[in-house]
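User: Okay, second chain of the day. Same drill as before: sequence in, structure tokens out.
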Amino acid sequence: MSFVIPCYNGEDFIGIVIDSIKESLKESCDTYEIILVDNGSIDESAKIAKRCGALVYESNSKTVSGVRNDGVKVARGKLLIFIDADVELDRSWYEVLSCKLKSTPHSKLITGSHCVVPEDIRQPFFSWYKSIENDDRNTHLGSGHLIISRSLFEEIGGFDDSLKSGEDYDLCKRALQAGASVQADSELIARHLGYPNTVFGFIVRECWHGASDFSSVYYFVRSKVAMLAVIFTLLQTGILIGVVAGSVTIVQNFATLTLVILAIFVYAKFGFQNIKSFFCNIIVAYIYLLGRASSVIYPILEGKRNE
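Assistant: Same drill. Structure tokens below.
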């Protein structure tokens, strides 16, 4: 099996991540390799990874999809495990995976799990991340912890190199169309150590996540979240107009519509767990859609950065 880890300036966690893989597989008889695909890091990521026993390769790809695909090109395993450079595996991870693969044919299976939330994440973000962790829909899995056979990966053409984000959703969608199944397994415990814990960090994260949705009309019309972000923007514009015009009625109407849409969105995404989580998630949903709406300017910012 091959662990493929894309990395850009991941020195804070990469040593922990690699050590967690080795700890989980220390009693394994299976052959495995840990591949760090460095995408131009200017920190100590590559040196730390080598010191921890990983194989380090360079990638000049402009997307994380391409970085992951470059990792597969040098990987030798028949089973590909994609994890991010800030995702730590639990000690029980390999034992759980072994049992799963013995009982489930994996040539047409994508598995993994939604990452566990660290306890030091503050509210309201903790409720949001915890809801993602508990999401039991088998529609897609994040590439921060995604397991797929090489045969299926090659059959569906790997990750789409053109996508700046959302490559995991796209991969799972094509896998489902090819007759594969996507099965999240909460017993495959992986902890996301790098979750944003501030409003600004969260907005930046979602701005990047939504970048591909606004890269073309084709991707935009395929994304319900992108269209919702546009509606959200129009509602906030309505509130601003009401404020400028000094109309309390206009502000109240658009604010009420915003709250209703946020509540429907949260319920559709996570269901209803308890009142506290529901209202925390509504607050974060506002920030989430603000970040996704900001994705429209991401190509402009990226272009200026690359000049």
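The CA atoms of residues 93 and 188 lie 5 Å apart.

User: Thanks, on to the next one.
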